[in-house]
Amino acid sequence: MTESPVGSVDIFYVGEGPRVAILGDSLIVQSLHVLRPMLDGLSLKIAAVSGEGLSGGALSTARQRQVMLVQSAAHREDNPDVAVVALGTNDALDPNLDTAGATAAWDQMMEDFSDSTVIGVTVNESCTAEGFDPVAAREINALMHRDAAKVVDWNAVASDPSLTGADGIHQTTQGQHLYAALIHSAILGCLELGAARS
Fold first, then answer.
1. Does the residue 2 lie in any domain?
2. Is 122 helix (H, G, I), strand (E, B) or coil?
């Protein structure tokens, strides 16, 4: 595992305990220093890359394949207990991506994670970054509400200026801590529910 400001992709699960897979963009990258220690005691496999969406991004273009779909496909064999999908902001921001591609990618991820409990992390619909499409963000969030077993509704809180910077996307220090705490809580809740059912 190598972490950088651009992101990190784990090749193997790291740690012992229930398996948790996380797919994310720059919001996960920003909050990893907070989130990873919170998840001590779990086996983690994280793919978080700035600029990536559900359906592509700069790294996907450079590699000529959809990076996050490659990662989710690997989990057909891995079978994580919980899968967190924290993607979609770049699908609403990058002019080279669209909601049709995002929808197709999301549907494929749901198939890849069909044996896992899926947590979706919503996109901030009130983002003020130039070129951001709030309609696309709403459509992506609707997919998460439709299919995910649990939704971390970042959209419900992210309009608070103390949590995001001027672009309405990237978190302040306070935002990083809240983002990580919400995801941590959702993961633990899903693991507890799974244990209760088994």
1. no
2. coil
Q: What is the pLDDT of residue 5?
A: 54
Helices of type H across 7-86 = 26-38, 58-63, 67-78
The predicted structure's pLDDT at residue 76: 80
Give Cβ neighbours of residue 11 (< 8 Å, ≥ 6 apart).
1
Confidence check: pLDDT of 168 > 90: no
Mean pLDDT of 14-18: 94
Give the integer Cα–Cα distance in Å for 1 and 8.
Answer: 7
- Does 1 fall in a domain? no
Position 20 scores a pLDDT of 97
Number of domains in the chain: 1
- Beta strands per DSSP E along the chain: 7-9, 19-24, 43-49, 82-86, 117-121, 150-152
Q: Quick one: pLDDT at residue 2?
A: 41
In a domain, 185, yes or no: yes
> Would residue 81 count as lying in a domain?
yes
CATH code at position 97: 3.40.50.1110
Amino acid at 119: I
pTM flag (> 0.90): yes
Domain that holds residue 77: 7-197
